[in-house]
Amino acid sequence: MRWLLFIWVLTMWLVPAVHAATEEQSIILEVEGNPHEFKQYIERNHPFVEVVHVYDTLLQGVAIRGDDQDIEDVQQHPQVQYRFPVQTYETNVNESVPFLLEDRKEPFNDIPYTGKGVKVGVIDTGIDYSHPDLEKNFKGGYDLVDLDEDPMETKEGQGEPTIHGTHVAGIIGANGKMKGIAPDVELYGYRALGPGGVGSSVQVIAAIEQAVEDGMDIINLSLGSSINGPDWPTSMAVDQATRLGVSMVIANGNSGPDLWTVGSPATSTKAISVGASTPPLRIPYFYEALNKKTIPLMPMSGAKPWTLRQSLPLVHAGKGEGDLPDLYGKIALIERGGLTFTEKALNAERHGAKAVVIYNNEEGVFQGGVEPSVTVPVTSISKEDGEWIKQHVIEQSTWLETEYVSVVDTMASFSSKGPVTWNWDIKPDIVAPGVAITSTVPAGYQSLQGTSMAAPHIAGVLALLKEAHPHWTPDMLKAALLSTAKPLEDEEGKLISPVVMGMGKVDVRAALEPLTLIEQGRLTYGRFLKERETRQAHVSVQNRTDRPRTYYFSKKDAPKGVRFHFPASFTLSPGEKRTVEVGVTVNQRLTSPAEPFIHGWVELHDEAKTIHLPYLIVTKDTTFPHAMGLEFTIKPYKKTEYQYRMYLPIGADQVTVELYDPDSLRFVRTLFSREEVKRGVVKGTLTEKMAGEEGVYLAVVSVSKDGVHQSYASPIMIGESYP
User: What CDD domains is this protein classified in (predicted)?
Assistant: First the structure.
């Protein structure tokens, strides 16, 4: 078996007993073959290299520590595989926690479970275990960056400080001034992302293996990538961890609102992938009465709440750079680009602004965040709305009113959507609050948003379920969550698409004691290439009550060209479980090619309740990304070779990568071209001569398959440093 190589390098200074003082590195190598035999090879041939850990379950590799030259010598061994550049694996709970746990009749603290005795691992940027709300429940962990047993967040002086893992941990199990979902849970931190929240696939996989070895019941990964495929290495590691008995909770990603934006490891088949909905919120918006124009304001993470009541004039402040116009008592409208959001806001604040609105410099909306040093409200709007304000408000010297609307149980626009490529799975699985979530951070509390905040809500709920049902498997725990989820509706009262919300919003009380347990409840029929075809999905239904229950399926208003085949009604005795077939026939001569795919809901009924089960059918007309995730870097310690990696969900007749000047968009040269490329992870090497002149380029990847042509752009660097 061949294994991919990913390496993370961290430098530190030590003085070995017999070596001269040199710069020391801690790295994780993936190797081909038996990692224990490779450990023996290192011990025999490289006595000054310490083997810190051997990975042999989810990862075939070793963690080693040594000086530069010794590490370089080890990496020359032919068993050492590819290395790729480090990736950023994406990184008012006081309102969202009771919102999830309470109902209208009973207070949330009436739930008799607190996660006691349940081990939850947080794979992230580390945990500030000195926080007074976390120190009681923190039990240990491991640092996969420094290769030691101190998974503390990155602090000042160690690189760009981090807060993400501490925020996630607080949502799960804070127990102090703030209470998490499971306030008596045992928290373990696994630091896989270093300064600035940056880490590599190998660190994430190694962290999963370490957490599995440490006996975690649940692992939360509020991180992700742009690779939409079920067989990317991190997704496969998550699947394997679930088979080993650990429930895996993954953030679905923040790349919405477009389809196909879910990324690995949330693409894992067996994971619980979590999208972001809203807790009870009071959302501000601008209103212009003459044109009856409304402009929603999206608060930035970390910003002060928008509480303005009086109307204030708006002033266009360019990109927020340098000297700005008089902003005293006014709202600054600033274009995105150039400075960071924090720098823009602080500059506007210094010039007297009462609030800041940042509009996009490209189509659509965006989300962002500011640091706590910003003391005025900061929101984002679309490019279209920003241009409208400039033309109709600022240039005409009119004012906008600030109004508010109360929202709850809506989907966050940034939440990534499915489906997954290749196996055409429905993701996310479920949703939880992920907007304006206040939780613990080093030295205090802060409000953040993202599916990173939604996932730990589900991890905390799983801890409650695991305490209530300690012998339930990960599949049963997942089934309990999904079987009892509440589908959300849009403004017209229609159910939101399953590729947006999965099975719906988590219902904690119902999940603790589900009357019916459904496994394989998401009906994913795959990709239909024939004009007329019939396929089956298998659904397992279990009656968990103490009396017989009768079940039957139905579907209202099936799409044109689609016919479902339901089993006859059936009765299950108390505790009985049965697997039934739900078939579908698709006639693509009758289906609508205008739809991206065929999806919706079928109903499973018993005497008292209807459960909505999502279905997905991908047709021959469905458009989906044919390539993604180009990674390109120089080989470690081999300055004359480069390596690349990308993902092709269905393969390609031809793949071409062309380089363009990122400023002028002038074509420079073709980097490489390949034909008849198989599906999955695609990798290769280029010589220094083939790579060409050093510099930063815009790489345009063009893919052709069965007459369909697609392309996408990705920045790459040739050479070891930016020019």
Answer: PA_C5a_like (cd02133), Peptidases_S8_subtilisin_Vpr-like (cd07474)
Check 201, 264, 452, 714 and give the catalytic one.
Answer: 452
Question: How far is it, in rounded angstroms, from Cα 72 to Cα 705?
Answer: 41
> Looking at the predicted structure, is the pLDDT value of residue 426 above 70?
yes
In CATH, 628-718 is 2.60.40.10: yes
pTM for the full predicted model: 0.86
Annotation marks residue 469 as catalytic? no
The domain over range 515-618 is classified in CATH as 3.60.110.10? no
Collapsed DSSP state (helix, strand, coil) of residue 11: strand
> Rounded to 5 degrees, what are φ and ψ at 482?
-75, -35
CA 252 to chain centre: 4
Q: Is 601 helix (H, G, I), strand (E, B) or coil?
A: strand
Report how far residue 38's alpha carbon sits from residue 628's, in angstroms, rounded to the nearest whole number. 33
The CATH code that applies to domain 281-407 is: 3.50.30.30
628-718 and 515-618 share a CATH fold: yes
Annotated active-site residue 124? The verdict is: yes
Q: Which residues contact 687 (CB under 8 A, 6 or more apart)?
A: 640, 641, 642
Q: State what percent of residues in the chain have pLDDT above 70.
A: 92
Q: Kindly report which listed range (10-24, 214-228, 527-541) carries the lowest average pLDDT score.
A: 10-24
Catalytic residue (one of 67, 124, 128, 133): 124
| Residues sharing a CB contact under 8 Å with residue 114, sequence separation 6 or more, in sequence order | 182, 183, 184, 185, 464, 467
Catalytic residue status for 714: no
User: For residue 650, which amino acid is it?
Assistant: I
pLDDT of residue 101: 63
Residue type, 405: V
Predicted pLDDT of residue 717:
92
